[in-house]
Amino acid sequence: MKPQMEETEFWVGTFHGNHDGLPAKVTATRDDTRPEPYAWTCTCGASRSFPTEHDVWPTAWRHTHPTRFDRLRSWAARLFNARTAR
Fold first, then answer.
1. What is the pLDDT of residues 14-68, one digit of tens each?
2. DSSP single-letter state for residue 2
């Protein structure tokens, strides 16, 4: 099922995967009324926009399929934030 989109947005693709140990779904869209027409939005709340469709695919894929380095960096950030919050 496609997410609810604005009238000017067109669905381009969907990526399923996970990050931070939780399932994630990224939806890529195109909207010619924006300065950067291509964008993706994740169910976690993250989003990015790009001038071309070639920039959307690698970042959306990596967001839902993080590398080992991405997972290590995310773990270290959570650990650091937990310690500074005390």
1. 999 987 778 999 999 999 898 999 999 999 888 999 998 888 889 998 888 888 9
2. P
Residue 1 confidence (pLDDT): 47
For the chain, report the end-to-end CA distance as a whole number of angstroms.
42
Q: How confident is the model at residue 86 (pLDDT cuts 50, 70, 90)?
A: low
Q: Rounded distance, CA 59 to CA 64, Å?
A: 9
* Secondary structure in 3-state letters for 5-74: CCCCEEEEEEEEEEECCEEEEEEEEEECCCCCCEEEEECCCCEEEECCHHHHHHHHHHHHCCCHHHHHHH
